[in-house]
Input
Amino acid sequence: SVQELEKIFQQKIDQEIKIEPKDWMPDAYRKTLVRQISQHAHSEIIGMLPEGNWITRAPSLKRKAILLAKVQDEAGHGLYLYAATETLGTSREQTMDDLISGKAKYSSIFNYPTLTWGDIGAVGWLVDGAAILNQVMLCRTSYGPYSRANIRICKEESFHQRQGFEILLVLSQGTPEQKAICQDAINRWWWPSLMMFGPKDGESTHSEQSTIWKIKRKSNDELRQQFVNMIAEQVKILGMTLPDPDLKYNEATKNYDFGEIDWNEFWNVVKGNGPCNKQRLDTRRKAHENGAWVRAAAEAHAAKRAARKQQ
Ligand code: 3HC
Output
């Protein structure tokens, strides 16, 4: 019976046995994984856009080469994750259509513009820094293909964060104008980076069930607090400040207390009304349309090869 199958399934989860594509799994487990993994993949692909915006304008050949490598990495991360989504029985076309049609979510953070070169440093340091905390946790997620995808992703992420911090470190040691660029970028990316971890635990739709199924190993607020503690220390090395007057080390809890996140802004951006939502989807839609002939040619080539094999 389904009850027995569910019991065996939960025992495997409790015994830290990875769930693999061919294993029986509750429909709701499959459904929430398709939701989360496809949105994670979309985030990687959309995340290429704010950074790609500066590849032609990087201040040196070295910075251009590093940024090119990073944006290429994000494309690869997206492919690992789309492949993990397919192991759950959802086609790549369906997943891509969900993004292009505006139905699927992707991380809110990528709906903000990269206005200066300092933003490329802030994105690497803060956005990839937040993503690393989340993705290190996801290395231990209960679904095998998703866990293995995150293990590969994390191998490349620390370089992403370090190169971002280094960009800001150089700016922070530069002219007064460069120092101002550094501080301005931190001011604009700080609060949106905190929103990456999702709603407060009390408002999180999926956390409880995702924790029982060990999809999620740490709560949204736990990871957010870990992130604030880490960045509140690192920002001192830059000689810069975080735009939060309530940020204060709490001796009792050994955590940094911090101010209230603007949840109206968060839900507004998630709903599609952020500064760049329309631009991001238009760019993806155009790329998808312009790439249709490549997909058609690849399919025709594959059909010919299959027909030749038949002969
Ligand atoms: N942006 C957009 N939507 C968000 C969000 C965000 N920052 N945070 C939460 N949401 C959505 C959730 O998707 C969910 O909506 P849905 O039911 O339609 O999917 C709703 O808000 C409620 O949130 P929950 O906390 O209940 O949702 P989850 O349990 O899924 O937790 C999460 C949210 C922690 C983001 C989780 O989905 C997750 O770990 N996702 C995979 C990792 C990921 O996407 N990381 C961020 C981007 S990747 C990146 O930055 C790459 C880097 O290399 C550049």
